[in-house]
Amino acid sequence: MPAHPLPLLTLAEVEAVARAAHEGQTDKAGRPYAEHLAAVAAGVRARGGDADQIAAAWLHDSVEDDALTEEWLAAAALTPRTKAVVRALTRRPGEEPETYARRILATPGARLVKEADLAHNADPGRLAVLDEATRTRLTEKYARMRTLLGLAGQISEIGRPGQK
Description:
Elements: H1 11-21, H2 33-46, H3 51-59, H4 70-75, H5 80-89, H6 97-106, H7 110-121, H8 124-127, H9 132-148
């Protein structure tokens, strides 16, 4: 496959695209969504992820959340690996967790990005501001995905606010 005809987006450019795409969006705790993207990117970097994985971390929810389209992703000046990781992390409507986890595991580099995503999503400080029912549901959801990805039992503090 030939190289992309345009120079690839830098990580700073990918960050700017992601921040702009998610502008005005908030997470379940009411925080600006870009904070989550930044935390996942930092978590990927702290776990030894490479530039493709860091770029994918910035974009990991963009297609799923309709912040960017699949057409944008297909045409973007990103490496095929970055695009593959973003696609692997994009949940399909009605998709079973097992199917989603298999796709992540089958895509080189995707598991590390999902690990950083889960670590930030499950951060006790983020969960603490949610109502008990939502906190319990999400804690169970994240634990199940960690199990499906073979991450259960691993300490995953890297990339959480206040952690090194």
